[in-house]
UniProtKB/TrEMBL annotation:
<dbReference type="GO" id="GO:0043335">
    <property type="term" value="P:protein unfolding"/>
</dbReference>
<feature type="domain" description="PPIase FKBP-type">
    <location>
        <begin position="171"/>
        <end position="251"/>
    </location>
</feature>
<keyword id="KW-0143">Chaperone</keyword>
<dbReference type="InterPro" id="IPR008881">
    <property type="entry name" value="Trigger_fac_ribosome-bd_bac"/>
</dbReference>
<dbReference type="GO" id="GO:0015031">
    <property type="term" value="P:protein transport"/>
</dbReference>
<comment type="function">
    <text>Involved in protein export. Acts as a chaperone by maintaining the newly synthesized protein in an open conformation. Functions as a peptidyl-prolyl cis-trans isomerase.</text>
</comment>
<dbReference type="Pfam" id="PF05698">
    <property type="entry name" value="Trigger_C"/>
</dbReference>
<comment type="similarity">
    <text>Belongs to the FKBP-type PPIase family. Tig subfamily.</text>
</comment>
<dbReference type="InterPro" id="IPR008880">
    <property type="entry name" value="Trigger_fac_C"/>
</dbReference>
<keyword id="KW-0413">Isomerase</keyword>
<dbReference type="GO" id="GO:0044183">
    <property type="term" value="F:protein folding chaperone"/>
</dbReference>
<dbReference type="GO" id="GO:0051301">
    <property type="term" value="P:cell division"/>
</dbReference>
<dbReference type="InterPro" id="IPR001179">
    <property type="entry name" value="PPIase_FKBP_dom"/>
</dbReference>
<dbReference type="InterPro" id="IPR046357">
    <property type="entry name" value="PPIase_dom_sf"/>
</dbReference>
<keyword id="KW-0131">Cell cycle</keyword>
<dbReference type="GO" id="GO:0051083">
    <property type="term" value="P:'de novo' cotranslational protein folding"/>
</dbReference>
<keyword id="KW-0697">Rotamase</keyword>
Length: 453
């Protein structure tokens, strides 16, 4: 067998492979010999089927299998011998001439084909000990805990029916039924029965709740509102609808005492324990936000320290995925690129840059993990899947079975676990200082958030 490299263009490689007909015949004979002991053909004892008869019956199929096996082995050898890391599966191009291909299958001609590869570039990793980062942290203030406790109390506030002729006020809870129409025609999703609605909650379309202030139980009102331009249902965005609303009941909110009894209703032994639980949850939220900002800083530094041309195919695949999401989101919001202050070409250029960054960072993190033997164990993956399954009470087994049967889904669990382990490894080497900031600064949106890997 002769393997010759014919192209080396950037990260693209192409090889020409020639396999003599004699080599193919040797492989074919070996497969026929094994087949002779396996097949059962009427008129012949097991293992006694003449080879010539097998060739007549199965020759073409066996040759196709032999060629397929040989191509796999050859591709693997090319990768191993050259020390390549592949960015994509090898692309094999067989002879297009039917006569030539027929000669190969019949064992009368040499097999000549090309295999195209796209490889991952060699990545020279930076010295992570030279990276300096700042971890932003914020303390959970007592007044924030009190506010959160009060919000929880408001959410659990009891409601009692108002007097039969009492008018609804902001804060009251109504039970309503309605039919919505646009240009006199009822539309899908615009009709509902016995829906609870607290006036002033902002749950419904802007203006809807305001027009029900003063309504009484048993009253029917026409509420006219305009759907926001960014409404999730594109067919309704920006349109004006008239809702015929019937108020079934009006209930007034009661008072909630923030005391031990209230805490016990929520399953905690005292108000102090409730506030402690709320504080711990808020601390976890703050810590997660601090970690996210620190990780974003780190990715920015890795991006700046590792500049190379990533495999074009990987970048194109990532761009397509990102672009589909962008276009889908705009369509769902009934918005255009002009509404975003740009045009399609500029947006594509921006998101190609994001795709390039994501691919490069992904390759850098993978290289760090490989060179430092960072692994994610099956046990760690299983624990993560269990946590996901717990998010669907009553359907845990269904979720578990889905992951067990879907390798791609398991990979989607493993990948972020691996990334976090690599990030932790780098953070151990980097110099990380800590700065206490107000909550607002900790949770301030970063313009580069969408660019993070």
């Amino acid at each position: 067998m002769d393997v010759t490299q014919t192209t080396a263009d950037g990260l693209k490689r192409e090889f020409r492979v020639v396999v003599p007909a004699a080599d193919l015949e040797t492989r074919l004979s070996d497969r026929r010999s094994r087949l002779k002991d396996q097949v059962r053909i009427n008129g012949f004892r097991p293992g006694k089927v003449p080879v010539a008869h097998l060739r007549k019956l199965y020759g073409r199929a066996v040759m196709a299998e032999a060629i397929e096996e040989l191509v796999r082995e050859t591709n693997a050898k090319i990768v191993t011998d050259n020390g390549f890391k592949l960015a994509m599966d090898p692309q094999v191009k067989m002879p297009e001439d039917k006569t030539e291909l027929e000669g190969v299958v019949e064992g009368k001609a040499d097999l000549s084909y090309t295999v195209s590869l796209e490889v991952v570039p060699a990545i020279e990793l930076a010295d992570f000990k030279g990276i300096t980062l700042e971890r932003l942290v914020a303390e959970v203030a007592d007044d924030e805990v009190r506010e959160a406790t009060k919000r929880l109390a408001d959410q659990n506030r009891p409601f009692a029916p108002k007097a039969e002729d009492a008018a609804a006020e902001t804060g009251d809870r109504l039970v309503v039924s309605f039919v919505g129409r646009i240009d006199g025609e009822a539309f899908e999703g615009g009709t509902a029965e016995d829906v609870p609605l607290q006036l002033g909650s902002g749950t419904f379309i802007p203006g809807f709740e305001d027009q029900l202030v003063g309504a009484k139980a048993g009253e029917t009102r026409t509420v006219t509102v305009t759907f926001p331009e960014t409404y999730m249902a594109a067919n309704l965005a920006g349109k004006t609808a008239a809702f015929e609303v019937t108020v079934k009941s009006v209930e007034a909110p009661g008072e909630v005492a923030l005391d031990d009894d209230f805490a016990k209703k929520l399953g905690l032994e005292s108000l102090a324990k409730l506030e402690e639980a709320i504080r711990e949850r808020m601390k976890a939220d703050y810590a997660a936000q601090s970690r996210q900002k620190l990780k974003r800083q780190l990715l920015d530094r890795l991006d700046a320290l590792h500049k190379f041309d990533p495999p074009p195919t990987l970048v194109e695949e990532e761009f397509k995925s990102v672009w589909e999401t962008v276009v889908s989101d705009l369509k769902a919001q009934n918005r255009s690129f002009a509404d975003e202050g740009t045009d399609e070409e500029k947006a594509k250029e921006e998101y190609r840059g994001i795709a390039d960054r994501r691919v490069r960072l992904g390759l850098v993190l993978a290289e760090i993990g490989e060179k430092n033997a960072i692994k994610v164990t099956d046990e760690e993956v299983s624990r993560a899947i269990v946590e996901r399954a717990r998010q669907y009470p009553g359907r845990e087994q269904e979720v578990w079975d889905f992951y067990r049967k879907t390798p791609a889904a398991v990979a989607s669990v493993r990948a972020p676990l691996f990334e976090e382990k690599v990030v932790d490894y780098i953070l151990e080497l980097a110099t990380v200082t800590e700065r206490t900031v107000p909550k607002d600064e900790l949770f301030k949106d970063d313009e580069t958030a969408a660019d993070a890997a």
